[in-house]
Amino acid sequence: MTAHCQLPLRAMLFVPGDSARKQEKSLTSGADAVIIDLEDSVVPEKRAEARQLTHDFIAAHKHDADAPDLWLRINPLDTRDAIDDLETALDADPVGIVLPKCTGPEQVAELDHLLFERERKANLREGSTAILPIVTETPGAAMTLHRYLEGKFAGKARLAGLSWGAEDLSAAIGASRKRKADGSWTFPYQMVRAQVLLTAHALDVQAIDTLHADFRDTEGLIAYAQAGRSDGFSGMLAIHPAQVEPIQTAFTPSDEEIAEAEAVVAAFAENPGAGAVSLDGKMLDRPHLKLAERILAQQ
Known about the structure:
Elements lengths: L10 E6 L3 H7 L6 E5 L9 H15 L7 E5 L6 H10 L6 E4 L5 H17 L8 E4 L5 H4 L18 E3 L3 H7 L13 H17 L2 E4 L8 H14 L3 E4 L5 H7 L4 H16 L5 E4 L2 E4 H12 L2
Parallel strand pairs: 1-2, 1-8, 2-3, 3-4, 4-5, 6-7, 7-8
Antiparallel strand pairs: 9-10
Helix pairs in contact: 2-3, 10-11
């Protein structure tokens, strides 16, 4: 990947593009990435002001040693607002672009082309701006996920990951509920969530789970984040600073997990030609090694 985002991306915190106070506060949130939002959190009449505020914030803090990665969520790519977002804010050099309501890999390729043009214009390193598309916010988009695997589409080198959303999708299909009484997703959302997870892993990029909308429900957030990591997601979107610490904890391996993973890796290192090894009375094969290496990469 030519883009310069740090990995893993565990907690990715949304911050309104029109709030200088919240942007400054986000610097000490503990998130791996802060996404300055120019889309849903900014009313149309304030977007011009928000673009300039966002540009100045990213430019001022992009080199801070202890700052999170600074991302930008633009407006949907088929709008004039999206072009204005890129023209105003890109020369501040955000780490990446979150692409909402992405209609499919063709739109990632279109954004890739636009980024190349604006990187050259802003004297930025070509290919340095990553892309994180939200790939399930319309019914049509949710049915295109297999096309991300058809050959090497333009823009693939910029992909930091894939994420999904339930709010816009539920509105698009007229769903009266998204979750069952026990809090689990209903079938349409289980299906698209699983497809995003598998597609991200097939592309070898980060699988970023969707947000937990009730930011006061810490218990529910912890349970959801832990389930997300158990399912194979590498991180999660956040909409409030209070959500960051529980998400970071859930997606960071415990000391016990790290010790176990290190022991597995060491056992295979001592037997480089073996397809399986014995450790603490258990027979482990290559998939165990792969899982251990993945756990160590999540530190």
